[in-house]
Automatic annotation (TrEMBL):
Residues 159-219, 236-307, 320-393, 403-469 form the AMP-activated protein kinase glycogen-binding domain. The keyword Protein biosynthesis does not apply. This is AMP-activated protein kinase glycogen-binding domain-containing protein. Belongs to the 5'-AMP-activated protein kinase beta subunit family. The keyword Transferase does not apply. Keywords: Signal. Residues 1-23 form the signal peptide. Gene3D superfamilies: Immunoglobulins.
């Protein structure tokens, strides 16, 4: 095991000293005077064991095989079975093999390093909007586009790191540089919500100047902004607030700030279609600079803001019909909300849609139909719909099978649906673009009804059908 892996063990050990005793009852890694002891509770889930093995420096192991009693991967990595007590199997590895000085005091490492909101390691669920709240601003956006985190003080300490969901809570990345007043590090972040902590000489601490703390623990929260609401004029107004679909029309939570004669508010806003309006000294108004407006169900007119990727839906022909609409997962399949405009060759509409994977259909004079120009489809609730991925971050490919009539993709991202996502053949290979959340993804291909793992991916794990699933990690 290299020095980096040993460092991982040391830093993760420190954080786990603060974890609850209940979290320490599962699989764990103990560092003693001259050896490492790895304890695996065979009742643990595959996710827990997989996370524990990574912290022990072992990646790509067949977790399902280990939970069935096959410890070949551990033995190849230098671990020996030291004993078994109940459901817990203990493995041993001498520290001298690490070429490092052993620790005199044992520390405990468990699999519960952080809590996830959506099941993806280290990545909280999406939020509609967010506004920072600092007693003293310690996170700054630089002109270069980087985000600078500042930890004031701690000048007597030797080492400080920044760890968060943006680097999968790494204890190796995020090394901070010491200045005359504290520690700094610059990272590249996309707009969104981030949780973080500092690691000072092995001790995990939150940002004491940040008033935003995660509900499930004491992680500090930072929002990287992507939008600024502005309202010109109203110089004599006493109070202006912002309310919209993103904050459930709460008229008090977002207070606009007056700067240079302009009322404005910086915030993070989730991509998609957002309705909003301003409350000026108790009177509702729409945004005078935004021509996009719509009347809500309550009869009040709201301004409309579209953030996301531009997607053009086109339907050629059908020039003799009265109306064409489109509906899909991006608008909760609401009928009659998105009409297409008639063109010389057919119908078209341009939409702003948040990143994701969606099914959709055209509605031609109240008759629902799939997109005749789109070879990819998906099944939702037993109904086949056309498929589109907005801002995909991975392309699945399957070479060969030139004579196959149908090739589909199915995985943990679509609940292993039997129809999956239809792949298209380009003459060399079958492909489909997918927007995937960070973390571990399992998948298989379905070729003419026959399930198979990805022949180009050596990483796989067994499943309950003894046929295996291919494994993909998305950063």
């Amino acid at each position: 095991m290299k020095r980096g892996a040993y460092t991982v063990i040391v830093f993760f050990a420190m954080v786990c000293m603060a974890l609850s005793a209940s979290a320490q009852k599962r699989g764990k890694l103990v560092m003693g005077g001259d050896n490492l002891r790895l304890l695996i509770d065979m009742r643990s889930s595959k996710v827990e064991v997989d996370s524990l093995l990574k912290k022990a420096g072992l990646k790509g192991a067949n977790v399902a095989a280990i939970l069935k009693g096959d410890f070949t991967a551990l033995q190849k990595d230098g671990w020996t079975i030291a004993g078994k007590q109940g459901n817990v199997v203990e493995f041993d590895r001498p520290l001298e093999a690490l070429n490092q000085n052993p620790q005199t005091k044992p520390y405990l490492i468990t699999t519960k390093i952080d809590n996830e909101d959506d099941g993806s390691p280290g990545y909280p669920a999406d939020v509609n909007f967010g506004i920072n709240n600092f007693a003293k601003v310690t996170v700054h956006e630089l002109p270069s586009g980087l985000t600078r985190f500042f930890l004031p003080g701690y000048l007597q300490n030797r080492r400080a790191l920044l760890s968060g969901n943006f680097n999968n809570w790494s204890t190796l990345k995020g090394i901070m540089a010491k200045t005359d007043s504290g520690w700094i590090v610059d990272v590249k972040l996309k707009p969104g919500k981030y949780e973080y902590k500092f690691i000072v000489d092995g001790h995990w601490i939150n940002d004491r100047y940040n008033n935003l703390v995660a509900d499930h623990d004491d992680n500090s929260i930072y929002f990287r902004y992507n939008y600024t609401f502005k309202l010109n004029g109203y110089a004599n107004a006493h109070k202006i607030t912002l309310a919209g679909s993103f904050n459930n029309w709460d008229a008090n939570s977002i207070v606009m700030e007056k700067r240079g004669g302009v009322w404005q508010k910086h915030l993070y806003l989730h991509e998609g279609t957002q309705a909003y309006r301003f409350l000026v000294d108790g009177k509702w108004i729409t945004d005078p600079t935004n021509p996009n407006k719509v009347q809500g169900d309550d009869g009040i007119t709201n301004s409309i803001l579209n953030l996301g990727e531009k997607v053009v839906f086109k339907l050629d022909g059908y020039t003799d019909v009265k109306k064409v609409q489109v509906a899909g997962g991006f608008n909760n399949w609401e009928h009659g909300k998105i009409p297409l405009v008639k063109t010389k060759t057919g119908w078209a509409v341009s939409l702003i849609i948040p990143p994701g994977n969606y099914g959709y259909k055209f509605i031609v004079d109240d008759n629902w139909m799939t997109d005749p120009k789109n070879p990819r489809n998906m099944e939702e609730g037993g109904i086949v719909n056309s498929y589109i991925s907005v801002k995909p971050n991975y392309t699945f490919k399957l070479s060969g099978f030139n004579n196959a009539k149908s090739v589909r993709l199915s995985g943990s991202f679509n609940n292993f649906d039997e129809l999956g996502y239809t792949m298209a053949f380009n003459g060399r290979e079958w492909t489909v673009d997918v927007n995937l959340k960070p973390g571990k993804q399992l998948y298989k291909f379905i070729v003419d009804g026959k399930w198979m793992i990805d022949p180009a991916n050596k990483l796989y794990e067994p499943n309950q059908y003894n046929s295996g699933n291919s494994v993909l990690w998305i950063e």
